Amino acid sequence: MAPWAGVAMLVVTGLTIIVGWCWVWAGLTRRTRVVAMERLFPYSPTPVIPQIQAIIWPAVPVVGCLWIAVGAYSAQTIIGHETLFERTIVIFLFALVPLIAVWIMCGQSLPTWMYPGWRAEHYYRTHPKVAEKELNARTARRFVGVRA
Fold first, then answer.
1. CA gap 33, 12 in Å, rounded
2. What is the per-residue pLDDT across 107-136, written as a single tens digit (0 to 9) for each?
3. Gap between the Cα atoms of 30 and 34, Å rounded
4. Any idea what DSSP says for residue 47?
C-alpha cells in the first residue's frame, strides 16, 4: 500500500497546484481578482518582483502537470508496465520549465493569458463600476470609461 500512497501524494499535489493556479487565474472571487490586478505581474501597476513573477506564473501549471506525470510514471513502475510514454512526458515537462525561464529572461514575452489576472482584467473591462468599487483608485483608473 505504501507505494500507492506515494503515487496518490504526487497526483494530489499536482492537482492542488493546478487548481490553486486556476483559481487565481480565473479570478472567481473578489479577493483573487484584487490580488491579481493589484499585486501580480503583468497587470499590476506595481507588481512585487516582476522579473521573478514573469517566470514563475507561466511555469506553475507546468510544474503541477509534472507532479501528475511523475505520479503516472510511478504507478506504471509499480504495476510493472513499460514507462516509455510517462518518461517522455516527464522529460518534456522538466525541459519546459527552464525553457520558459530562459525565454522570458532573454526578453521574449509570453501571451498575457498565461498569467493570473487575465480573466480578472476582462471582468473589470466589462464591469467598470465593479472595478471602481473593488480596486484601489490607481488600478481602477484603467477601467473607468472603458468597454470591452
1. 25
2. 898 998 999 988 999 999 999 899 999 999
3. 6
4. -
- 45: in domain: yes
d(CA 142, CA 70) in angstroms, rounded, equals 42
48-58 pLDDT, tens digit per residue, is 888 899 999 99
Judge residue 108's burial from the number of C-beta atoms within 10 Å of its C-beta, 0-12 exposed, 13-18 middle, 19 or more buried: exposed
HSE-CB of 40 using CA atoms within 13 angstroms: 24
Contact 83, 77 (CB under 8 A): yes
Question: What range defines the domain where residue 33 resides?
Answer: 2-140
The answer to whether position 145 is within a domain reads no
- Whether residue 100 lies inside any domain: the answer is yes
Spatial distance between the Cα atoms of 59 and 101, rounded to a whole number of angstroms: 8
Total domains, the chain: 1
Cis peptide before 42 (omega within 30 of 0): yes
